[in-house]
């Protein structure tokens, strides 16, 4: 990555400030809030897939787990602070276990995809089947396909009566996304992040350099789940009712599409892809002439065909070509010709 | 006599019916430089992979500096100070030369020292002008040199190089030879090579592999003039 972390911070603050000011002039804060939540969810997969090379088909599972953890804890506690923290920790812990099982079991990428997919399905089926009164955690009924309604929503820490909702909730979500984005930037600039990218590029080489690839992938996987869990908790507060469809495969697939369309290997791409496509879905939802999933599918196909790297890398590339300075002391003529002998092994 | 740093007893590796490595007893002393030769498929790379932990031998044991490492994972072997260059290029193609070497240095040093060590290696390998280029854009010889840098920057005490001179220009080979000699001041080195001229220029002791077994182990001059060796290996070329 170019620039420094303090540069990142300044950029994030300026852009967040600008968007918080401008966007509500065009779109309702209620809609913007869910776009932010999805942006954070996109970022969670963008981190582990785009930078860690871990393609998870079950990111929705961590999102749903975060949301359900929040709701169940909030019903029991009656105050939102501890539930918010739990909503981050529980998915992270679950991912750490699942990740350790997969990475220490040396499963290859295909099986990883299958297992994360199956885990999502199991969670979906399980939560769906918990309508009966015997499924309770403390005071909270799981509710099965009926979902969980009526839990304590976000309040000012320590004062359960002081709800944060409406415009204020939008601001809280926006700031949280900015903070998470900053933390992700810091992570990617740290040794941990750089090593993760190295592992994405060549696992064998990194292990021959002495890195325990299994442990590092497990850790990154858990970080991604923590972010997805936070997004889930924010979703719960926005929706005020949870249903098992959070765990659906459709949701997981959408997250993957957000990342592809926005641009893998960038921080901004998955956030923009998520917010953009979710907004499009919202607009399409207001009419009935064309089917929603059809359009999403079409967009995916068009992107894969014509803009395979996604929006953000394409725009960045265009920007460089038009306005970019050549790096000092080196011209393109000095570059060696490509002489790739791509032999893997 | 210097201590033994690497020792294998009856190392055997089977792939189904193929015996890639057969009952290999091998000994290497500290700061020794050894060449491994043998025809294609003789089991040289398999031997390396077993030592590096990339493959677990079917039978036999491996000891490094007195510790059994037979079932160690590659990262454990590497973390103990063993540097490996595999036969096929094994680098991070979409990362810069600097980043590649820095990642190797970072394993053994804090970020600041890793920066310094990386700069140092980049200078010694004359990679300065391409330090910021992605590895995927570089010529084969340059990538080989970077991979050697990855290995050298970790200050290993045992170095395994599988065909390091393959596809390199004479100038590249000369530079590499210098680096190898430099590493050899502190590390024992095993080099697998087919290039006889290169072997003559660098080796004293040579081990010949043939059909997974050690055929002969002796001074380079005697190995090169041995009729059996010429028959299985050199004979093909002349
Ligand atoms: N993973 C594997 N599965 C099956 N057979 C293998 C495998 N790896 C190596 N072999 C076989 O083991 C034998 C030894 O292979 P190896 O790569 O060790 O030879 P080598 O001496 O390095 O040859 P070269 O000079 O061509 O690199 C060969 O017959 C090869 O086909
Ligand atoms: Mg080989």
Overall radius of gyration of chain B: 18 Å
Query: Helical region count of chain A?
Result: 13
Quickly count the domains of chain A.
Answer: 2
Q: Report the uncertain regions of chain A.
A: 326-345
- Portion of residues in beta strands of chain A equals under 5%
CATH homology superfamily of the domain at 1-81 and 199-238 in chain B? P-loop containing nucleotide triphosphate hydrolases
- The multimeric state of the shown protein is heterodimer
Structural class of chain B: alpha/beta
Proper CATH architecture of the domain at 1-81 and 199-238 in chain B: 3-Layer(aba) Sandwich
Bound ligand species: adenosine-5'-triphosphate, magnesium ion
Q: Biggest interface between protein chains, with counts per chain? A: A-B, 30 and 39 residues
Organism (chain A): Falsiruegeria mediterranea M17
GO molecular function (chain A): branched-chain amino acid transmembrane transporter activity
Membrane topology (chain A): Multi-pass membrane protein
Subcellular location (chain A): Cell membrane
Characterization of this structure:
The complex is a heterodimer of chains A (345) and B (238). With 345 residues, chain A is mainly α. Chain A has 2 domains: 5-294, no CATH class; 310-345, no CATH class. Chain A is 68% helix and 2% strand. Chain A has helices at residues 5-26, 29-51, 59-77, 81-104, 109-128, 167-189, 191-201, 203-208, 213-239, 249-262, 268-285, 292-306, 311-323, and strands spanning 136-137, 140-141, 148-149, 241-242. A two-stranded antiparallel ribbon of chain A has the order 1-2. In chain A, strands 3-4 form a two-stranded antiparallel ribbon. In chain A, strand 1 and strand 2 (140-141) form a beta hairpin. In chain A, helix 1 (5-26) runs antiparallel to helix 6 and helix 2 (29-51) runs parallel beside helix 6 (167-189). The longest helix of chain A is centred in the middle third of the chain and has 27 residues, at 213-239. Chain A is globular and about 55 Å long. Chain B is built from 9 helices and 10 strands. Chain B has helices spanning 44-52, 74-79, 97-106, 111-124, 140-152, 170-184, 196-202, 220-225, 227-237; strands at residues 4-15, 18-29, 33-37, 59-64, 67-68, 82-85, 158-162, 188-192, 205-210, 213-219. Chain B has 238 residues and is of the alpha/beta class. Chain B has a domain at 1-81 and 199-238: 3-Layer(aba) Sandwich (Rossmann fold), CATH 3.40.50. The mean pLDDT of chain B is 93. In chain B, the strands form 2 sheets. A 6-stranded mixed sheet of chain B has the order 6-7-8-3-9-10, with helices on both faces. In chain B, strands 2-1-4-5 form a 4-stranded antiparallel sheet, with helices on one face. At the A-B interface, helix 7 and helix 8 of A face helix 2, helix 3 and helix 5 of B. The structure holds adenosine-5'-triphosphate (ATP) and magnesium ion. Residues 44-45, 87, 162 of chain B line the site of magnesium ion.
């Amino acid at each position: 990555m170019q620039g420094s972390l303090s540069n990142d911070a300044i950029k994030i603050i300026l852009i967040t400030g600008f968007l918080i000011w401008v966007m509500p002039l065009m779109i309702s804060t209620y809609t913007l809030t869910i776009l932010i939540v999805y942006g954070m969810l996109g970022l969670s997969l963008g981190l582990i897939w785009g930078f860690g090379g871990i393609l998870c088909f079950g990111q929705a599972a961590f999102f749903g787990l975060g949301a359900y953890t929040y709701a169940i804890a909030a019903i029991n506690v009656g105050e939102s602070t501890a539930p918010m923290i739990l909503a981050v920790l529980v998915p992270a812990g679950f991912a750490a276990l699942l990740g350790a099982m997969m990475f220490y079991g040396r499963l290859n990428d295909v099986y990883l995809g299958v297992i994360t997919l199956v885990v999502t399905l199991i969670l979906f089926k399980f939560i769906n089947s918990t309508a009966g009164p015997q499924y309770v955690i403390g005071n909270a009924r799981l509710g099965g396909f009926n979902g969980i309604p009526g839990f304590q929503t976000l309040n000012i820490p320590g004062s359960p009566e002081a709800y944060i909702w409406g415009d204020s909730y939008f601001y809280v979500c926006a700031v949280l996304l900015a903070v998470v984005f900053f933390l992700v930037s810091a992570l990617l600039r740290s040794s941990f992040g750089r090593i993760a990218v190295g592992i994405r590029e060549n696992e064998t080489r990194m292990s021959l350099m002495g890195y325990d690839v299994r442990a590092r992938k497990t850790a990154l996987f858990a970080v991604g789940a923590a972010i997805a869990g936070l997004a889930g908790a924010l979703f719960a507060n926005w929706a005020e009712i949870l249903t098992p469809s959070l765990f659906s495969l459709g949701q997981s697939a959408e997250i993957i599409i957000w990342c592809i369309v926005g641009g893998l290997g960038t921080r901004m791409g998955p956030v923009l892809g998520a917010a953009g496509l979710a907004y499009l879905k919202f607009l399409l939802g207001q009419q009935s002439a064309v089917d929603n999933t059809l359009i999403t599918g079409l967009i995916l196909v068009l992107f894969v065909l014509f803009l395979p790297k996604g929006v953000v890398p394409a725009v960045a590339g265009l920007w460089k070509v038009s306005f970019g300075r050549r790096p000092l002391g080196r011209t393109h003529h000095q570059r060696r010709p490509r002489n790739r002998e791509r032999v893997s092994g | 006599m210097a201590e033994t740093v690497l020792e294998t007893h009856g190392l055997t590796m089977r792939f189904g019916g193929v015996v890639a490595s057969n009952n290999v007893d091998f000994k290497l002393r500290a700061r020794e430089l050894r060449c491994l030769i043998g025809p294609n498929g003789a089991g040289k790379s398999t031997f390396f992979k077993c030592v590096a932990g990339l493959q677990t031998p079917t039978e036999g044991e491996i000891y490094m500096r007195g510790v059994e490492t037979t079932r160690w994972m590659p990262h454990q072997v590497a973390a103990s100070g063993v540097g490996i260059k595999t036969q096929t290029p094994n680098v991070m193609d979409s990362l810069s030369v600097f980043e590649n070497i820095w990642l190797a240095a970072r394993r053994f040093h804090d970020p600041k020292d890793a920066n310094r060590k990386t700069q140092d290696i980049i200078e010694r390998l004359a990679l300065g002008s391409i330090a910021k280029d992605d590895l995927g854009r570089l010529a084969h010889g340059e990538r080989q040199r970077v991979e050697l840098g990855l290995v050298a920057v970790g200050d290993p005490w045992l170095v395994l190089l599988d065909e390091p001179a393959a596809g390199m220009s004479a100038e590249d080979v000369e530079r590499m030879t210098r680096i190898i000699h430099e590493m050899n001041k502190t590390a024992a080195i095993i080099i697998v090579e087919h290039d006889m001229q290169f072997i003559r220029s660098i080796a004293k002791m040579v081990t010949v592999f043939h059909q997974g077994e050690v055929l002969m182990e002796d001074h380079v001059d005697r190995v090169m003039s041995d009729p059996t060796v010429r028959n299985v290996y050199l004979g093909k070329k002349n």
